[in-house]
Specification:
Shape: elongated
Order of helices and strands: HHHH
Keywords: Calcium, Heme, Iron, Metal-binding, Oxidoreductase, Peroxidase
Number of helices: 4
Radius of gyration: 18 Å
Number of strands: 0
Cofactor: Ca(2+); heme b
Structural class: mainly alpha
GO molecular function, one term: lactoperoxidase activity
Largest sheet: none
Distance between the termini: 36 Å
Helix content: 40-55%
EC number: 1.11.1.7
Organism: Malus baccata
Length: 78
């Protein structure tokens, strides 16, 4: 959701947010919280952005998918 680099995967979203040009209210809200604002500033750095993204993908890959037994169907309460 970054109009400046719609065809690229990069950290420019965070630059846009810092310039108060985000598309959504939630983008602007990131700057109203000091902790979130610090994260926005940190992830504006392209190297830090890719490092954090890679780490998050590793963590997501480690999440085990919950599955139900095949015969359970759509029983409520599982």
């Amino acid at each position: 959701m970054d109009p400046g680099s719609a065809r690229n995967f990069d950290s420019s979203y965070y630059t846009v947010v810092k310039q108060h040009k985000g598309l959504f209210q939630s983008d602007v809200a990131l700057l109203t919280n000091k902790g979130a604002g610090n994260i926005v500033a940190e992830l504006e750095d392209l190297n830090k952005f890719f490092t954090e993204f890679a780490q998050s993908m590793k963590r997501m890959g480690a999440v085990e998918v919950l599955t139900r037994p095949a015969r359970s169907g759509r029983n409520v309460g599982l």
